[in-house]
Amino acid sequence: MKKRTFLLALSVLVLSCKSEKKQNDNFITQEVQDFLDEYTKDYLTLRNASAEAEWEANTKIVEGDTTNAYRVQVANEAIAKFTGSTEVIEKTKKYLEKSNELDTVQLRQLNTILYEAGNNPQIVSDIVKERIAAETLQNEKLFGFDFKVNENSITTGDIDKVLRESSNEKERLQHWEASKEVGKDLKDGLENLKNLRNRTVQALGYNDYFSYQISDYGMSREDMLKDMDNLIKEIWPLFRELHTWARYELAKKYKAEVPDYLPAHWIPNRWAQDWSALVTVEGLDIDGALKNKTPEWIIKEGENFYKSIGFDSLPASFYEKSSLYPLPADAGYKKNNHASAWHMDLEQDVRCLMSVEPTAEYYETVHHELGHIYYYLSYSNAQVPHLLRGGANRGYHEAIGSLLGLAAMQKPFLAAKGLVDENAKIDKIQNLLKEALNYVVFIPFSAGTMTQFENSLYAENLTKDQYNHKWWELVKKYQGVVPPAERGEEYCDAASKTHINNDAAQYYDYAISYVLLFQFHDHIAKNILKQNPHATNYYGSKDVGNFLKSILSSGANNDWRQLLQESVGSGMSAKPMLEYFSPLMEYLKEANKGREYTLPETI
Hints:
Blueprint: H1 2-59, H2 67-83, H3 86-96, H4 104-118, H5 125-143, E1 147-149, E2 152-154, H6 156-165, H7 169-180, H8 182-202, H9 209-214, H10 221-253, E3 262-263, H11 286-290, H12 295-308, H13 316-321, E4 340-343, E5 350-353, H14 360-379, H15 394-407, H16 411-416, H17 428-459, H18 467-479, E6 481-482, H19 498-502, H20 508-529, H21 542-552, H22 560-568, H23 575-591
Parallel strand pairs: 3-6
Antiparallel strand pairs: 1-2, 4-5
């Protein structure tokens, strides 16, 4: 009898303990949720103010007017003070110590808060404030710069047009050199930003700013660099053939000796990241088909594509609040000419900053930027907390934009839109060559030149007197390109690239996005549309739209590796990209017979 009484008492005690633990678990879960709700409310208010200030500063740049810069600085200091507050950091760390008592969505939000704090820790608030001011000033200098040729002011669009179209080598050289002049004004600012960015994140234990940015992927700096090196090695044999082909073709064009390395001003892009304008595909004259179209028509066509695969119309505010077209000559102010998509309030206020013109390049760009916009809108739903309304990783966002840009440029799609003749005979190899001069050529630039330069800058503490030397050392190694003449340290040609200044230490995102792009495209073509990956038409396919929504709608509320595995059946791999361009190798090897290769067989 006594034994039974003891066992009964013991079971009551165990049940009591379990009940008490459950109550404690519920208490901490609710406490964390209250913290997250309060943080989110304040964060959204401050983020909205920052976004509006940044928008104004990028869309209305008046020489000598510091009003916008002041507003940006004040707004960004306010959000930095909040996200990096000691109280926020300490509470977040305390809650993360109880991770086994929290649900996965709460943990993801807490990790997001702590990552955000790493860029703005209150314990070095003076440095954070100084960095924000320095970033604002750097942007003003970059976007307000007056580019000139023969003392005449020109736009970056004018420069790009000459580099794409002109056969006059002198004219090309003048415009290329003009495009780099901005770097002189930005060099000291870049050095200052490097130091401030490093010191900011080091306060929370990160080695450097480059490592901090990579940590957002759940990866180390060493692992990211290894992945980028492997990607370049995989595509190197094809890039080496493209480089050899380009040297000989451009030497013929400019009636010059074949150079060992490509002179930068020969290439139809300011940073040699895209050589596709070297090839014109007969029967695929998109520029000609668009010349009588309006910029407004191009944007509406982009929206119609997304609607055709099952997405909603863009909010009316998109057209009311975006800055979509080039400024009139008498505007009296300038704007940032780099195309971008903005999610202003993490809800329905989405905008684009572009200068759309009726060209094939902008036709693709519009579809790309609207890819970002529809990604924003897709994850702005009740299942995704505001703090997780972002891409599955940063590369996903660019992958989706580039995927829809690629899809919009394939012949069946263009024929369905009436932009090319459905019966036109198109040289498939030349078309593939044009695509490779875009997608393949971009990999050594993004995974090599840009990634290695920023690794040297932030992680290896590259000194200012080596900026230009290091830049051109990397451009030669990875891209096989050299400057037209010696470029001394009075220049800072790296800083002419927007991302070096205001989207720092993240350019590997774009390399990753191209890998993901071809994985998604391969899956859509083969498993959904049952079409040749080289000749697809996504238009009107609700199945394609549903597949995209399955990737987009969860935002960052997932494990990006698991999401990729579930969507395409494999981890991140360059195999689909290499397979896509495999028919081109045979052609290039034949074209390059008897020609001298100047890039090494391996890198």
